[in-house]
Amino acid sequence: IPKWDDNEMVGMELREIESGSLYEKMGLNEGDVITSFNGVQLDSAAAGARVLSKFVEADEFEIELAGGEVMNLSSAELTQLLESTGEEE
Length: 89
Description:
The protein has 89 residues and is an alpha+beta fold.
């Protein structure tokens, strides 16, 4: 869900992460706030469309969390995680 701070969108907060889900296997936790994806700042509703475009085209994924933690994942690693969760791309 959108995360707001001082009336400004600062990212997307993860909620209700299911056990065994892709998010859990990636090391993401309940309450984590994703602030950017492949260089696209998640600071507006319109950013979602830009992220989707980047996601479809990308071979590498860089996810930045609030607090500065950066996660890097290749498309091969993402595919492995999806297969291990039984989810589809």
